Each structure stands twice: as C-alpha cells, then as structure tokens.
Request: fold
Amino acid sequence: MARFLIPLAIFIVLAIFLGIGLTLDPKHVPSPLIDKPAPAFQLPRLYEPEATISSNDFKGQVSIFNVWASWCGACRAEHPFLMKLAREKTINIYGLNYKDKSDDAKRWLVQYGGNPYKAIAYDENGRAGMDWGVYGVPETFLIDKKGMVRYKHVGPLDPGVWTNNILPLIQKLKAE
Amino acid sequence: MSVARLVSSLILLLSFTLSHAAIVAFEFEDPEKEDRFKRFSEELRCLVCQNQSLADSNAELALDLRSELYTMIKNDASDDEIVSFMVDRYGDFVLYRPPVNSATWFLWFGPFLLIFVGLFILFMVIRSVGKQQSSELSDEEQEKLNTLLNNNKDNES
Reply:
C-alpha cells in the first residue's frame, strides 16, 4: 500500500505548491517601504514650478500618493476612478508625475477629464520615483498621519481593490 | 558585389548595431571599476522585465538604475552601499542571489534536505532488497529445484 501512497502524497504536495505558484502575480513585488517613513523628496509642483512639494507635506493627514505619467496607458484607465475619489473627497490625493514632460502632463489631465490631485510633484528625471521604488506606473501609496508608507498598490486602482484593501485601512489610519 | 559578400556585410552591420545597443556608453578609466559595474549589472534584476538583469534589459528603469550604479561605482561606493541602495528601494527581489534569512532558508537548504531524504529512501530500498535475496530456500523448494536441474541434465544427454 505504502509504495502507492508515498508517490501519491508527493504528487499532491507538489500540485498544491505549483497551484499556489500559479495564483501568485509575479508583478506584485512586496515593497520594502511598507511601515517605513515616506522617502524624502523635494520637487517643483507641476502647476506652480516655482513652489515646491516635499514628503513633509504628507504629515498630519492620511493621504494617497499616486504615481502617474501621460505616456502610461494604464493611468488612463485609472483616471476616472481617481476623479471619482476626488469628487467624493474621501481622501487627499497627491500625485507624482513620473518621467514626463510638464506640457504633456497638463494636456493629458485636460484631455482625460480633469485634475484629481491636491498637488502634483513633478519628477522629470524619475529620481524621486527611484527612491520610492517605482517600477510599474501607475502605483499608489497610502501614507498615514505620521508620514509613514502603509500600503502600496501596483497597477491601476479600481473599485474592487479600493473597497476591499484600501478603504478599510484608510478608516483604521484615520482613527489612529 | 557577390551575394555572399552582401550577406556577410549585412550580418556585420546587424551585429554592430546589436552590440552598440547593449553598451550605451558607460565608460570607466579604471578596469577594476568596469569589472564591478559589469558584475553588479549582471547580478541585479530589472523589475520591469523580471527575467532580465540590469545589464540585459532595455527598459527605461534599467537604464536609470545602470546610470545610478555607474555614478555609485565612480564615487567608490562599497558593495554593501550598492546592494542596500537597491534593496531599500526594490526589496530582496532585485538580487539574483537572495540573502540567507528566515524567509529564504528553505530555498537555500531545501535542495540538500531533499538529497538527504532521497539518499535515505535509496538506502532503505537497497537494504530491504538485499534482505529478500539472502532468504534461503525451504527444504521442499530445494528438492523441487534439484529435480528440475536433474531433468534438465537428462534431456541434454
């Protein structure tokens, strides 16, 4: 009996591991920034290049920091959802315009329905994006009142991710 | 111009553009630094095209990280500084050779564990087979064997 059961058991264990492997998304690399202070930056604002925005501006409120670019196709898909969040005033949305041309970025916002951001940091050469470990735009970070990164989502935000993963965390962080 | 010459010059032209694309002008005066640059760009993963190293990838991010690496090596950054720069931003995943820690323990030592399990099973199987072979025939069986052998002899003669 054992000579049949052992290979069967090995097969089942292997199948379980491979099955788990299949359901994982290799594009989802866990961010080392979670529960660490937001990486410091000081960048010109997209609409007021003479004024700056820095990582200190996140302190004292719960906010999301959304990395986007006019050359990014998935950002177009995400944009209406960000606009909806902005209209509903759920949370402060800050933007990081990553490796973009400022004219292209402004034109893009007009073309695709408006500006959902409270302020946009203009990261022309992508150096701030590098400090934030950006590798696949759009990316969204959730930042707590102390200016700590608490969650990262890679890819476009959608209602599913929002209600299941992000919104409960926002409510928790607002209560903190 | 003969066809062969045309083909060979085309191949030459193509190989030139290919190698040119891979290099992208990171020049070092010190050959030792160049070696370090090569070594690191081959050991760090590009997160955009995950099965390519920084050296292989043509993604924008890989290019940015290569130039960051170039600056760090020019400024004599230590190995630890370079590795922690990458790991702080992108996690252990950027390292093709992951560090030994509690999460990667099974990854590093699992294969050895499996070899030992395999050797143990092999040993047990060999021992049980050996036992079966050494078992002797009963008297009855021995007699049967003798008769068979004798019959055989009779037939041959």
Q: What stands out?
A: The mean pLDDT of chain A is 92. Chain A has one domain: 34-175. Chain A touches chain B at residues 26-27, 29-33, 99, 126, 130-136 (CB under 8 Å). Chain A is about 40% helix and 20% strand.
